[in-house]
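Exam prep: given the inputs below (a chain plus zinc ion), describe the expected output before reading on.
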Amino acid sequence: MGSSVKLTLYGGVNKVGGNKVLLEDNVYDVKVFIDFGINSSEFSHLKAKNPDPTKVEQLVNNHILPRDEDLPIQNLYSKHFIYDHNKYKFREKVRDCENKVDPPSNLDGILISHPHRDHYQGLSFVNRNISIYAGVVTKRIIKASSLCMPPKFENFLYGLQWTRFRTGNTINIKGMEIFPVHVDHSIPAAYGFIICTSAGIIVYSGDFRMHGPLQLMTADLIRKARELSEEKRNNIKYLICEGTHINKGAIESERTVKQHLRKLFNYMLFDYFLVHYDRVNWDRFRTYVNIAKKFGWKFIITEKDAYFYNRLNMKAVYDTMKDPNIEADKDILILSQDDTKLPWKKSLNELLGKSEMTPRRISIDDLKTLEGKFFLYFASNWDYNKIKNYLPPNLRGAFICSNVDPYAEDYRFYKNKISNELFEKGIPSYRIHSSGHAKVHDLIRFVNEINPEYLIPIHTNYPEAFEKIFRNENIKIILPIREIPIEVDC
Ligand SMILES: [Zn+2]
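Solution:
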């Protein structure tokens, strides 16, 4: 008799990012995807060949998304909500979608572990009848991020049917129970899932670390998995485990980032620092703003960043997301972006119109005459290209690259290009960073504490390393093959 449960990986296999795991449970008659991300290198390779994709077929033909006909799912992709940004303006497309209804689909849901694009960006293309399960803040960050991204095909989330959860909730899909539990990562609102299938308990780690400020959250996932295993008198059958840094040992933390920055400040040799990290890395944002305050420096962000952070400040669930506070924090200056006419501009103008905030708004020309010392943050290549010609030539600056895990070749290329270009202008580069992913020693601890019968490595360039590292333990490692189902043994 065949197994009642199957797992098929459509992304994140021998690669970092782009996780898409289809879980089918015949006893519960459930089909769900766990994450539905787009791998950033695969997507940039497509864009190198074809600069402006606007059709799902282009993603499918390049194996970025699974082909509808190869799936046991009807109507996975939307018929009406695919945004051709060359044909429509964003608002026109929204209006066009208002009365549209997609055909029914037999997919019971998509669970999103956290708001990094390599875990959720495929949502832009899915049938709008499918339920999207995401954490309360996860959804909020995804929405705020999509509003801050260019209004393009791959960022169009209008019409999705969200079901929100928090740690402590149970998601029940046709009787199959799923327990989402928060984990620590380089972004707030990251979760792992414990899924009680008819063939036993399956744990999906999501992306996580055990050295960050919220490391106890990762311990909560482990504890809940062990508790459920005891309660249901059922071993943990499978662990689908991220392995970004299975090849790397390093002892680091957000605290070491702060310590290294402080050391750099001991010398007081620079007048400004150009800084780059992922906008959604809230811990990193806080670390930098705290350092700026401590030394009496200003921290400059763009209007788009201010909009993003303020939106999340306003409805902060975690206390950590109230700090830094865009409205109250006088050391944060806001760089005007006159060329942007996006919907969020209006609400930002209202915020910045408040008299006490007006002096904190500066123009790009002000950079050249700014008094006092400052950090200047850029989130993207686009922002970098805007500011690079306005850096004050009479001041001594340095670039600090503080971005998360540049595992993709093209990302490294882009970062080196910036470093080289700045060096030409007499601006040297530093790298000060701590990863969002568990290092090898923490991965070993995590796996041993979960203690599954089988382990499937995902989100890693080195899945076979798990076989070698766990060779003396009683855990069977299953190396996944993209699109080939793994039958969960009962
Ligand atoms: Zn991530």
